[in-house]
Amino acid sequence: MTVLPWRFLAIAVLVPVLLVIAAAMVGANVGGGVERTLIVFFINLAAVAGMGLYCGNSGILSFGHLSFMGIAAYTSAILSLPVAMKNMTLPNLPPVLAAIHLDFVLALLVAIAFSMLVAYVAGLVIARLEGAAATIATLALLIIVHGVIIGARDITRGSQSFFGVPRETDIWVAAAVCAVALVIVRLFRDSVPGLKLRAAREDLIAAKANGIGVKHERMLAWVLSAGLVALAGVALGHFLGAFSPKKFYFHDTFALLAMLIVGGMTTMTGAVVGAVSITLVSEILRRLEGGIDLFGYQLPEVFGTTQIGIGLIILLVMFRRSDGLAGLDEWDERLLPWLFRRKMPEGDDAPKLAATKNEDTLVADTVTKRFAGLIAVDKVSLSLAPGEIVGLIGPNGSGKTTLLNLISGVLPATSGVVTKGDTVITDMPAHRIAGLGIARTFQNIRLFRTLSVRQNVLAAALNAWPKRSVAEAEAASAAALDWMGIADKAESKANTLSYGDQRRVEIARALALEPDFLFLDEPAAGMNREETDALMETLRKLRDTLGLGLLVVDHDLPLIVRLCDRVVVLNEGKLIAEGAPGDVQKNPDVITAYLGRKRQDDIAA
Amino acid sequence: MELFLQQTVNAVALGGTYALLALGLAIVFSVMGMINFAHGELMTISGYTLMYCGIAGVPFVISVPLAILAAILAAVLMERIAFRPVRNASGATMLVTSFAVATILQILFQNLIATRSKPVALPEGLAQSVAFGDFLIGVNKLAAIGATIVMLIFLNWFLKRTSVGIAMRAAAEDFPVARLMGVRANAVIAGAFALSGLLAGVASVLWVSQRASVDPLMGFVPVLKAFIASILGGLGSLTGAVAGGFLLGFIEIYSTAFLPESLQEFKEPIGLAVVVLVLLWRPNGLIPSANFGTEKV
């Protein structure tokens, strides 16, 4: 399922495929060295694009992908080697493997499936780690697989060359492998899981709080990208005919990563640009390396010119354009933006947000949060009914935001129970809580910065429960944007918007989940008086028209008093007052907390 | 029992070297969020300095501090030339930059010095052994253990008692706030690199004194192990790096010593599999960094 119109994606995908076919035709006609170079280029590009599918969309760099290339190359080689040949070169092969002889396509499919299975198992570990730790874990994966391939001497001939692999990969096979990889990578970017994964790359906490089950999306991308890299690995094995474990280790990992990074790892365009530029540069440098006659002057042979040259290029690109040569956008997004403007029905047919049918009350019962020695929230109980606006106030550091984080599942509570109706949500992961209809915004805006406003909101809308179709989610996003008055900015990148608009996008994103309850953490921060008034009007309408229960944290006391049906006051993690806004304002404990004891005595005197 | 004790000494010596390397990585990571792939090349530079000093007939007592100094200088220069321009970029950008630096340096070593490994002249005393009752310990092993202990004590003192050290710890907690308090970013980052260079230099001297040779890729394998040690311990956590380094040393030495012959071939994958199991049990490492997961929301 994709989140862009098909006619747009068809063009986005067709053009690179045609380019690959054109290049293959040139290669097939010229033949010789050019054809070989092109075959290697196609295989490399397929592998780079496959690595980009995971690294680019998840934002986690992987060093481990070549292990899947290796696993696939060995698997398919062993399966497709003629039996007589196997008896000769691999006398100790387990009988099951020794007797088997599959044709190329079948061997390829089995090899890919097996690699994806290994990827799934490895993914169970890697998915538990974040950022740099995950990257280093992929490094460990590469070393483990390399070690196992060398150690399993009876099957792989150890560190010696594995030879006699049927040479099935001609330029058309390589081109087909490359085209398949490019198409899948491009489509995945704008698929439902692809969009969610990119949102999580931009802001993990916001992604979870908007219902994205990040681990699940990451695993999917990891296994899929392993499959593509495995495809490239099979093609490589049947092109070379002979290879050793060294082929799937650090040297080639770095070569492919260089392509990915120089081009820009977040896009298919980047993979193509990177593979083309590094291949061109290394072809040129390789000729220089052998010493070349330049205008009658004999340049000396310098060993390693190619690698130093590529190293310097990487440094240059990182210094000048750290997102890579192709940047963050696909070529089609850059050149054909008009093609994917989507028209939503207007006037009476315009999509609307549905009023909530929820009748359950949200109850936090004596929740506590300790950070080491500090008790940030101390046995606070709180309830929020549908159609009610509750204000949560207190001095700085009184635990307001922490309480929001506990109820929305962003932080685990040390003790206490949170329920929505009969459902206990205390130990649920944040994304499940969001799916149950509890949406929120953040104190320091957390948008998916490089995604468009429409994508920001859609990434959340897709997670509403019960599950809905992409079209329904798109309608809900349009309605949410409309509600917040920012529909005209739908195609702008979130990080280009003004502060006030970013706040509005955040609320629209939460609304697109069509939640029952909405938590707003300092929604009016940084807004002027008119903007604040407009916001209050919007919030009241949310309560009156959609029936939402709102929990609003703010420092702006007049705003809270005018807006809220009920106010809860926290001080030093404890609940010190609760009631109608007017009563709470007069409560002596509240005055002490806000103004201090002495000042209050002055007023009394 | 004797074999076990012997291997334990080996494990402590090896683990100590890993711990020093992992500490160097962790210090840089905690201050600027960068995994420095070129850390191994600092080791190599230090190793070559030892080699050249030996050829020039410089006494070992002088060539050791020179070798360590070379690593410190190289680390500071590396930061100044290559890493400063990408300081505020993403972790992936910094990692790739450092990897490019590492590649360039390796090729330079191969071109300018030698592609093969070169012998390093070491004082004869290092190769001898000391008898403790029944069993013998190599002087180089003792030196490695001693040097590790001294370095750990020094580092603890430096980070807790000196103003630069305290500034570095503050920067590791919250860099923007540290700067607002008047901590100079350039000084802290240069200091972190100098410290990581110092640790790499010491580790290099220990490494070379076990092997008596250097080659252009010398730093690659130990630093790879140090990477793994640093996530095993908890990325960015200094105590974690030490714990991870020692644990990895133990896993490696014991698996070499006690795995049956038929599994020897798999000792590296098996060792790493143990690491993976530890990570499954504690995904954030043995001793996670204190500010792990306390991102303000």
TrEMBL record, chain A:
Protein name per Swiss-Prot or TrEMBL: ABC transporter
PANTHER family: ABC TRANSPORTER ATP-BINDING PROTEIN (PTHR45772:SF4), CONSERVED COMPONENT OF ABC TRANSPORTER FOR NATURAL AMINO ACIDS-RELATED (PTHR45772)
Chain ranges of the ABC transporter domain: 362-597
Species, as recorded: Rhodobium orientis
Superkingdom assignment: Bacteria
UniProt-listed SMART domains: AAA
Entry-linked Pfam families: ABC_tran (PF00005), BCA_ABC_TP_C (PF12399), BPD_transp_2 (PF02653)
Keywords, ordered alphabetically: ATP-binding, Cell membrane, Membrane, Nucleotide-binding, Transmembrane, Transmembrane helix, Transport
Family membership noted in the UniProt record: Belongs to the ABC transporter superfamily.
Gene3D superfamilies noted in UniProt: P-loop containing nucleotide triphosphate hydrolases (3.40.50.300)
GO cellular component terms, semicolon-separated: plasma membrane
Lineage: Bacteria, Pseudomonadati, Pseudomonadota, Alphaproteobacteria, Hyphomicrobiales
Topology class, membrane: Multi-pass membrane protein
Membrane-spanning segments: 38-56, 63-84, 104-126, 133-151, 171-188, 220-243, 255-281, 302-319
GO function term, MF aspect, one: ATP hydrolysis activity
Location (main, coarse): membrane
Subcellular location: Cell membrane
Keyword Acetylation tagged: no
Automatic annotation (TrEMBL), chain B:
Pfam families attached to this UniProt entry: BPD_transp_2
Membrane topology designation: Multi-pass membrane protein
Residues passing through the membrane, by range: 12-37, 49-77, 89-109, 142-159, 187-207, 227-254
Superkingdom: Bacteria
Subcellular compartments: Cell membrane
GO molecular function: L-isoleucine transmembrane transporter activity; L-leucine transmembrane transporter activity; L-phenylalanine transmembrane transporter activity; L-valine transmembrane transporter activity
A single cellular component GO annotation: plasma membrane
Protein keywords: Amino-acid transport, Cell inner membrane, Cell membrane, Membrane, Transmembrane, Transmembrane helix, Transport
Phylogenetic classification of the source organism: Bacteria, Pseudomonadati, Pseudomonadota, Alphaproteobacteria, Hyphomicrobiales
Protein name: Branched-chain amino acid ABC transporter permease
CDD domains named among the record's database cross-references: TM_PBP1_LivH_like
Main location: membrane
Family in the record: Belongs to the binding-protein-dependent transport system permease family. LivHM subfamily.
Biological processes per GO annotation: D-alanine transmembrane transport; L-alanine transport; L-isoleucine import across plasma membrane
